[in-house]
Amino acid sequence: MEAKQKVYEKLDAMSINYEVINHPAVYTIEEMDNLGITAKADICKNLFVRDAKGKKHYLIVLCKDKRADLSNLASQIGSTKLSFASDERLDKYLGLKKGAVSPLGIINDTNKDVEVVFDKDLVGIENLGVHPNDNTATVVLSYDDLERVVSENGNRIKYVNL
Question: pTM for this structure?
Fold first, then answer.
């Protein structure tokens, strides 16, 4: 099944309200700005990282304009040194390709191996934009609904100040 379709079916099954914005493939926030997508929703930046030994994996979800200081982040979540995970790990744990990283990738994490780390500033936002596991569309939904998808999948959630 197509990645996007799997996401839409999951959101529908959970009775989550969402809007889909279809667009050409995008790889950066700047490209999303140029297409006007950032005017319609608060876009999330998503980083897939691992600890020093590669035993723990984290999906960091933050506001598009913020930068994640990985050493500060590691201390906030009680991890050893963090580094970006490889494309192979991204595929293995979240079933995603580079450029399509999304908190909705969690629906592919059947073993619940990945911890999701949300920037506290996302809490309460009504129109968050994330990819539906494919970078040719953006799904707009509320933070509460996004958090519900993650928690109902069974993944651990942490909150940080970035």
Answer: 0.95
How high is the pLDDT of residue 115? 98
- Could you tell me how many residues make up the chain? 162
pLDDT, tens digit, 9 for 90 and up, residues 87-146: 999 999 999 998 899 999 999 999 999 999 999 999 999 999 999 999 999 999 999 999
Write the CB contacts of 149 (distance below 8 Å, at least 6 apart in sequence).
10, 11, 14, 16, 103, 104, 106, 107
Cβ atoms within 10 Å, residue 148:
14
DSSP 81-122: --EEPPHHHHHHHH---TT---GGGGGG-TT--EEEEEEGGG
Q: What are phi and psi of 57, to 5 degrees?
A: -125, 140
User: Which CATH superfamily includes the segment(s) 3-160?
Assistant: YbaK/aminoacyl-tRNA synthetase-associated domain (3.90.960.10)
Q: What are phi and psi of 119, to 5 degrees?
A: -70, 130
Q: Residue ranges of the alpha helices (H) in the chain?
A: 3-13, 29-34, 70-77, 87-94, 143-153
Domain positions in the chain are 3-160
